Recover the amino acids of this structure.
């Protein structure tokens, strides 16, 4: 796998972008200021849709020419017909979702392939802080205090793998990455990913697929 | 205010908004947007034109089944139609607006067109790029055929003999105008309030012509609340003895009724917050209550002023007919289908929907309902709820967020289809 390194796209988004087939229909849930969607529209000619709750970010997206709807992802997703998209992307938002299982089921319903990325709570830095300092983790990837964090779900790469087995979906692609330099660069953590990766990125699909 | 041309800043309103004269202009957006553009960007001098069609026996056939003709539409255009005709932006106006959306008729005009802050060189709807068309609605009184026009059969004003028109009828008339202008494709339609209803109807009625659409602060069906306000406004006119069953063109006009109707309208265009900030309980030119029914409070004075200004330029019968057209509007019913989803399934345009947080006439939930129907029918739609304090009027006020959204969206559609 070779990430698309263009337009100064964040490293984790480069990885996701490299998984998207040109010309496909893509929805980004919690798409922020639309960095990934804009990149994909420009370089891969995708038909994009984004959902974002913050007005400022939605406006930024629309000003860039992206089709984005202001709203809550768990509510907005319900309006789309089955298999409306080729890819459904949830980038670094899973840890903030109130009902992740329901959301992932909905994502599987509206799209053929689901891409999920999240900060890895199994990273050694976090383990170190909990184990030796006895404090709730505070890292560049998780810069929040316990009282102001939007991250209400704690999961690691190992947790997510276990989760996919339990709910019956297949991991088609997986990238455990280690980012630095404000995400502009990074590398794939192949050895001991759950200990060394700051983020996990997964492409999952339904278990029973026609050959 | 729906038309943005009334004089919003009474001297008292001005004092209410700020402590000094200058402060007032800065703090009170409602007085700002009727002023000349501070940057001096304008489409410049414009001319109201007229197009007459549907002469008997080829009258315009209306939704009611009635035939109307000949029909005249007053219209204005800004910018230049490009060679392949791909840069047309049509701007339907709201309840009491007119064809004068931007620019000036003469250097002495004290106010520009009603959407001069949005339409002009380098503005949200950039007249250096796009060819903008705005026409007065069918049933109106600003140059288009309406109840105040002369009925060729009688030689007298139509009055109550004017047939009922719908939003779709207004759209049909605009289509005839565009045919006349040799416009075959519309890059985008943009309109707020009742203008937004026409935008929606256009996208469903002539899908092959409409590439994108921007309905603002609007609804796909008029709510009971909106109908209720309109009905009270109509009753105010009808109860005026001068109304005389619509036959008042030779004598005294129902000014009292029409001004009360306008006062009601103005309440719906503001918001609790806007009124609190603009007026609060401040008194008008007095230290204490008068203990009579003069205008004690500034808000009373403001409404009376708006009512009095309105009767100078608007026809009471037109007000009755146009409010009824808005009340009849239900996108599904209008297009003889079961639901909004089904109606939008006839459309192909790319949409940008925007609502305003403090709009209680067409609240955000109505825009969301519209967006939901568009999503379900597979349309490409964007939606933004803009934080704004000024109620329904917000769509007409200078708003950088709205301007940027419109600008970015239009550019994107223009680049896609070039």
């Amino acid at each position: 796998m070779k990430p698309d390194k263009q337009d100064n796209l964040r490293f984790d988004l480069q990885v996701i972008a490299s998984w998207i087939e040109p010309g496909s229909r893509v929805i980004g849930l919690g798409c922020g200021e639309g960095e990934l969607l804009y990149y994909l529209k420009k370089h891969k000619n995708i038909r994009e849709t984004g959902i974002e709750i913050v007005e400022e970010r939605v406006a930024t997206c629309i000003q860039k020419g992206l089709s984005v709807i202001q709203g809550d992802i768990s509510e907005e997703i319900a309006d789309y017909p089955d298999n409306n998209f080729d890819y459904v992307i949830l980038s670094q938002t899973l840890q903030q979702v109130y009902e992740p299982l329901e959301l992932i089921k909905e994502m599987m319903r509206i799209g053929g392939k689901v891409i999920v990325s999240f900060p890895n709570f199994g990273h050694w830095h976090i383990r170190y802080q909990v184990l030796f300092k006895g404090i709730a983790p505070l890292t560049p990837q998780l810069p929040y205090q316990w009282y102001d964090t939007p991250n209400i779900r704690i999961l690691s790469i190992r947790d997510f793998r276990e989760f996919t087995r339990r709910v019956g979906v297949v991991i088609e692609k997986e990238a455990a990455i280690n980012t630095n330099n404000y995400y502009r660069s990074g590398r794939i953590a192949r050895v001991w990913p759950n200990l060394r990766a700051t983020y996990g990125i997964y492409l999952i699909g339904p278990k029973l697929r026609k050959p | 205010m729906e038309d943005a041309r009334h004089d919003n800043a009474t001297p008292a309103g001005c004092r209410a908004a700020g402590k000094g004269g200058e402060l007032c202009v800065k703090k009170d957006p409602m007085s700002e947007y009727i002023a000349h553009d501070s940057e001096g960007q304008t489409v410049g001098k414009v001319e109201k034109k007229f197009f007459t069609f549907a002469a008997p026996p080829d009258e315009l056939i209306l939704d009611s089944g009635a035939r109307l003709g000949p029909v005249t539409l007053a219209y204005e255009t800004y910018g230049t139609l490009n060679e392949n005709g791909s840069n047309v932006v049509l701007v339907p106006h709201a309840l009491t607006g007119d064809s004068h959306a931007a620019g000036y008729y003469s250097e002495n005009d004290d106010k520009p067109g009603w959407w001069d802050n949005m339409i002009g060189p380098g503005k949200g709807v950039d007249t250096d790029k796009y060819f903008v068309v705005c026409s007065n609605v069918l049933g109106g009184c600003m140059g288009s055929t309406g109840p105040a026009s002369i009925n060729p059969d009688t030689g007298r004003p139509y009055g109550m003999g004017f047939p009922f028109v719908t939003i779709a009828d207004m759209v049909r008339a605009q289509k005839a105008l565009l045919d006349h202008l040799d416009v075959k494709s519309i890059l985008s339609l943009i309109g707020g309030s009742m203008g937004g209803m026409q935008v929606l109807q256009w996208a469903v009625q002539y899908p092959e012509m409409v590439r994108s659409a921007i309905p603002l602060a609007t609804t796909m069906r008029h709510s009971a609340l909106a109908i209720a306000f309109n009905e009270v406004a109509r009753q105010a006119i009808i109860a005026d003895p001068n109304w005389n069953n619509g036959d008042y063109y030779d004598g005294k006009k129902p000014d009292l009724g029409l001004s009360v109707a306008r006062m009601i309208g103005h309440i719906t265009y503001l918001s609790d917050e806007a009124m609190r900030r603009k007026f609060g309980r401040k008194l008008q030119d007095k230290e204490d209550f008068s203990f009579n029914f003069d205008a004690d409070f500034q808000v009373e004075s403001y409404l009376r002023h708006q009512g009095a200004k309105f009767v100078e330029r608007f026809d009471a019968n037109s007000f009755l007919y146009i409010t009824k057209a808005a009340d009849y509007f239900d996108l599904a019913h209008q297009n003889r289908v079961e639901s909004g989803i089904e109606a939008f399934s006839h459309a192909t345009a790319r949409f940008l929907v925007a609502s305003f947080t403090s709009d209680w006439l067409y609240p955000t939930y109505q825009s969301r309902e519209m967006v939901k129907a568009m999503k379900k029918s597979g349309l490409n739609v964007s939606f933004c709820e803009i934080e704004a304090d000024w109620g329904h009027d917000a769509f007409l006020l200078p708003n950088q967020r709205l301007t940027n959204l419109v600008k970015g969206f239009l550019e994107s559609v223009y680049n896609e289809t070039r």
About this structure: The domain at 11-417 of chain B is CATH 3.40.50.1820 (Rossmann fold). Residues 51 and 59 of chain B are 14 Å apart (CA to CA). The longest strand of chain B covers residues 71-78. Confidence is low (pLDDT under 50) at residues 3-36 of chain B.
